[in-house]
UniProtKB/TrEMBL annotation:
<keyword id="KW-0442">Lipid degradation</keyword>
<keyword id="KW-1133">Transmembrane helix</keyword>
<dbReference type="GO" id="GO:0016042">
    <property type="term" value="P:lipid catabolic process"/>
</dbReference>
<feature type="active site">
    <location>
        <position position="378"/>
    </location>
</feature>
<dbReference type="InterPro" id="IPR013094">
    <property type="entry name" value="AB_hydrolase_3"/>
</dbReference>
<dbReference type="GO" id="GO:0047378">
    <property type="term" value="F:acetylalkylglycerol acetylhydrolase activity"/>
</dbReference>
<feature type="active site">
    <location>
        <position position="191"/>
    </location>
</feature>
<protein>
    <recommendedName>
        <fullName>Neutral cholesterol ester hydrolase 1</fullName>
        <ecNumber>3.1.1.71</ecNumber>
    </recommendedName>
</protein>
<keyword id="KW-0735">Signal-anchor</keyword>
<keyword id="KW-0472">Membrane</keyword>
<keyword id="KW-0443">Lipid metabolism</keyword>
<keyword id="KW-0378">Hydrolase</keyword>
<dbReference type="InterPro" id="IPR033140">
    <property type="entry name" value="Lipase_GDXG_put_SER_AS"/>
</dbReference>
<feature type="domain" description="Alpha/beta hydrolase fold-3">
    <location>
        <begin position="320"/>
        <end position="381"/>
    </location>
</feature>
<dbReference type="InterPro" id="IPR017157">
    <property type="entry name" value="Arylacetamide_deacetylase"/>
</dbReference>
<keyword id="KW-0812">Transmembrane</keyword>
<dbReference type="GO" id="GO:0005886">
    <property type="term" value="C:plasma membrane"/>
</dbReference>
Amino acid sequence: MRAAWVLLPALAALSAYYVYLPLPGAVSDPWKLMLLDATFRAVQQTCHLIHYLRLSHHLIVLNYLICTFDKLKSVSSEDIKITDAVFDGVEVRVFEPPAKGDESLKRSVVYIHGGGWALASARTSLYNNLCRIMAESLNAVVVSVEYRLVPEVCFPEQYHDALRATKHFLQPDVLAEYSVDPSRIAISGDSAGGNLAAAVCQQLSKDEDLPVRPKLQALIYPVLQAFDFNTPSYQQNMNMPVLPRYVMVNYWIDYLNGDYGLAHELLVNNHTALNVGRALSFRARLNWTSLLPPSFKKSYKPVVQATGTAAIVERLPALLDVRAVPLLADDATLARQPPTYVLTCENDVLRDDGAMYARRLERAGVPVTLDHFHDCFHGCMIFTVWPTDFSAGVKTRDSYIKWLDENL
């Protein structure tokens, strides 16, 4: 009995130590965020152990656990018709609101989910719920793209899947099948899905034979560059849940089919040092000292290595491939982009990716709305369903849908 009285407080103290993280004072629902992060870290560590034992790839196990947990949640879709289809070899899930008597055509959103190009699914309740609410709120047809994931495939296959599915949907006969207005279509995505949405929009803008083009693009805390892992937001939020800097670097390595041994070199920007000739021409396009407002730059200093490792770019050429890194696009490509919405969160390593892209688009003459949330964190918009329901999720989701409703 005495041992139990000693053991229980010790376990409680250990659990509190594992869960507690120092968070910014303004972050939304801090204790709930700590619990979410602790759960995610524990699951990741278990998955890495399985990977280390060579029983399975850690991302396969992690995705399996995410989908298993997700099956515990049921999402109502009484008023929305949900069907699975295949667009040019790519699986999609289509959400269709009921027809209205006085309406012949509906607006539409092509949505590309996040998850580091490796996790989640268009079919999970988190994205199923988001797309259902979008379809209901906007009275729009929502096409959620089920692109293939790491480690099954790596770049550029996720990009090709998203592009093929989108181009198939934009064909006049397909739009007619779903009663979609060709002049009212948006391309959208969050996180890694925001990366794919931006890359798809850039490619569509170059396709002279495309009969229908998107009216808008909407990017939710998008990951847009692997050039500089020491922007102010990467420095400020390097240990911030649910996406610490080292985790984002590892997602990039997985996506580009690299070696984890490169992580440290990437973290200190050795891959884009001044002696890496292939990177020099892109430096001005990601110069955060001129692209970010003072409130984002704060007192942080650029991390630019004089000498680095040019072999990294030779081993991972996609680090400078605009299809993987949309922020590297030239000004002429950016000038062809549709009016754009970019949502950023203060407590997010990717905050500056979105802000820099918004600024470059603005300089290129594109109408841009930068919707910044000071108390929110990466990934929050999909966390609106119990037990991962956050006020930040509802707030960002409602703001995003409001912009689409007013502009699409």
